[in-house]
Amino acid sequence: PARFGMHYKNVTAIRGSEAILECIAEGDKPISIVWYRDGKRFEDYMHTKVIDEELTNGMRSLLTLQNVRREDSSYFECLAKNKYGSERIELQLLVQEPPEPPFNLHVVNFSNRSVNLSWEAPYVGNSIITVYVIQYKNSSDTWEGNVQHVTVGGDQTAARIPTLQPASSYEFRVLAENSIGSSNVSESVLVNTLEEVPGGPPKDVHVKARDSETLVVTWKPPEHHLLNGEILGYYIGYRKNDSAEPFLYKTLEVSPGSELQIVLKGLHKFTEYIVLVQSYNRAGAGPRSEEVMAITEEDVPGAPPTDVQCSVVTPQGITVSWSPPPPSDINGVLLGYKVFYKAITDWGDPTPPLEKTGQDVKVELFNLEKFCNYSIEVRAYTRKGDGVASRPIICRTQEDIPSEPAGIKAVVMDKETILLSWKPPRYPNGIVTKYKVYMRPLDDLGLAKDNFEVPSQETYYTITHLILNHRYEFWVTAYTIIGQGPPSRHVVQAPSIYVPAKIASFSESAIAAWREVLQLQCLAVGEPSPECSWIFNGKPLEEDSRIRINSGCALTINSIQSSDAGNYTCTVENKHARDEITYFLTFLQLHTYSQLLLLLCQVSHCSGDQARYYLNYKREFGEWEKIKLPADKMNYTLGGLQCGTKYQFFLRAFNQLGMSNPTDILPTRTQGSGN
């Protein structure tokens, strides 16, 4: 019978090629062979042909399919038959081709540096898929450019793509490969990886001092490939170089194009600081930059020298000593100290204080006024200038002998009496304890020099029992506890039966403030008694309710006004002579602004313990308030007053011995309109 050597056979062909199916049947001839496809008798088609060929021991039939296609894959049967019997053989034709593209490519999950992808397997093309190739690139690149590949086995439909860059946009696609070839690529998917903290520090950190309390910090962003996301801002840390305290941080939020600069204010002066910078994004802060050191600029010392003391060395010398300011307040390189000192004189002498500079914490002040209160303050200084002044201390030089009396007069009172008058020493150099009047005859009367002691509060002395028409020489000295001062100039006078009009008082300057009472003396002698008159600024002075001239020719002016300032001349005259003296009166003007400038009067020139002051003031219908004024100030500006409002003021002086009586109340009004 007809038979085949096998019952099943696989035949493969690549799509588009020629597939040949062969059946060889053995048996007695004649043998017929018929082809079947999928159970149906196979008919010739245009791209098929069947060729039968007799063999020595049987028959061979060839079924040829040209340009095979996927649909040609099928089961074919070959039926051989002779008169003794028949047999079938099954042939399976598999048309092989590259696989189709994987489909349903999607992102399972992703992080800052990896992506997990998954897809579905495609039609394999009758050839097992050997590998899947995942292609990816930066989304801004082209597929013809820098494309990365990851390969997984053909039995897998998922892959993890590692070593990606944070905060980057990637495009992924996948293709399959089998023994025939590669599929087309799948549709692509886009993924934006998550941000990661910046991978590098800010660059080029620079710190520069703007002033003594300010540093300016500038920098550049981290390297671009280390940004790992959008930089949202920067942390700027700073602390003192020698401090164990943690860094203080300031935050600078930025947007693209922002100036990368921050100003650190309120720092300690002339201090080393360490500064660092960190960038941050949505994932957090990156590494710190290297620490940069900078020093704030110098400034003047912020605190005064302490423990300022003085000791009196001589009537014209004072030793001043002190301790340095605290090191933290020097604010720079301490170059030395300046000692400012000034004699406290009458009526707020505008002369600036004297200055002595040195590097030691002790200084000797020489050539000072004797028995004089000095206001002394000390300042430390740096290259930037003088620091805060110490609280003024008052130091008084020792007493010394006084200078000579400033003026002397001898006037005839009658034929045996002379009135001697003098002015106190210009420089008392202490407390005058007494005066001594000296008299010496000049006309060979054989009389010795004589002297008379006069209490310190007296500046007149009457000498009687003198000889008519004989000349006498007079002079005066002043005493302090130290001793006798030099004599005044000598004056000569002789008693006479003629007594010309003379004034024993002296011309001098006077100062008065508003509403004070002022008395100007004009002590006169003469026989017959002289007539007295006063002239003000060249015009006769008329008495009124404020101005009085008493029987002794003294002029009293009540409630001084600014119009009272000027020259007051007292003139006395009798038939023998005429005499005059002039007072030069200065008025202290008080301003009526919303700030009042009050001028204060020192009690006397370099006299005793210096007085300090309480300024008492009240607004109309308000309560009295009190301010303690510095000892060395002769004026004070009171601010914060209400405009167009009435105020009242008075002063009281005090020292270690007690409080003075108050001054008269000074009413005034600020300018402007009140509320």
Automatic annotation (TrEMBL):
Keyword list, A-Z: Cell adhesion, Disulfide bond, Immunoglobulin domain, Membrane, Repeat, Signal, Transmembrane, Transmembrane helix
One of the record's GO cellular component terms: membrane
Sequence ranges assigned to domain Fibronectin type-III in this UniProt record: 101-196, 201-299, 304-400, 404-502, 581-673
Keyword match NAD: no
Residue span, Ig-like domain: 1-96, 495-582
Subcellular localization(s) per the UniProt record: Membrane
InterPro entries, per the entry: FN3_dom (IPR003961), FN3_sf (IPR036116), Ig-like_dom (IPR007110), Ig-like_dom_sf (IPR036179), Ig-like_fold (IPR013783), Ig_I-set (IPR013098), Ig_sub (IPR003599), Ig_sub2 (IPR003598)
GO biological process terms held by the UniProt record: anatomical structure morphogenesis; cell differentiation; cell-cell adhesion; system development
Pfam families reported for this sequence: fn3 (PF00041), I-set (PF07679)
Top-level taxon in the UniProt lineage: Eukaryota
Main localization of the protein described in the UniProt heading: membrane
Gene3D superfamilies the record matches: Immunoglobulins (2.60.40.10)
Name the UniProt record assigns to this protein: Uncharacterized protein
Record lineage: Eukaryota, Metazoa, Ecdysozoa, Arthropoda, Hexapoda
